[in-house]
Automatic annotation (TrEMBL):
<protein>
    <recommendedName>
        <fullName>DRBM domain-containing protein</fullName>
    </recommendedName>
</protein>
């Protein structure tokens, strides 16, 4: 469910960056507001929300945007998977489902290659994020088995 945190962690690991995470509750008249702060190298990213997880996601999204303006590029796993599939002539399909009410849906996505399930499962609040997380798992698996983009 924490799409941006997963993408930020991948970005930090691939570029060997240093990061620290802090989340603190602040009591207001309207309730508890969580303030999440992420320190990555020389930048600070923040997110605030009444939900702790959403505050952390907002901070991670902010950090990704700031890192990308500094030239650090995140991977787009769906694009990478499509490029690997094209290079090796693989047929990739996403199978998506969701549960919950329209305002609180949980999307699930799995990937099949040439009709065979790859054992990937992406779960997120939006379908596109679930597909990206499922693709991440498959790309990492394919790369471990010797499939390369270049």
């Amino acid at each position: 469910m924490h799409y941006y945190n997963i993408i930020l962690t991948d970005l930090i690991n691939r570029h060997h960056l240093q990061a620290q995470y802090h989340t603190q509750p602040h009591h207001t008249q309207r309730g508890v507001v969580y303030v999440a702060t992420i320190f990555v190298n020389d930048l600070t990213a923040r997110g605030e929300d009444y939900d702790r997880g959403k505050a952390q996601e907002k901070a991670a999204h902010d950090a990704i945007g700031r890192l990308e303006t500094q030239g650090f590029r995140r991977r787009h796993f769906k694009t990478d998977l499509n490029n690997i599939a094209k290079k090796y002539r693989l047929l990739v399909r996403y199978e998506n489902s969701y549960e919950g009410t329209p305002d609180r849906r949980t999307h699930k996505s799995t990937v099949t290659i040439n009709g065979t399930p790859e054992g990937s499962l992406g779960i997120a609040s939006r379908e596109i994020f679930a597909e990206e997380l499922a693709a991440k798992t498959v790309v990492e698996s394919l790369e471990a088995r010797g499939y390369r983009l270049r």
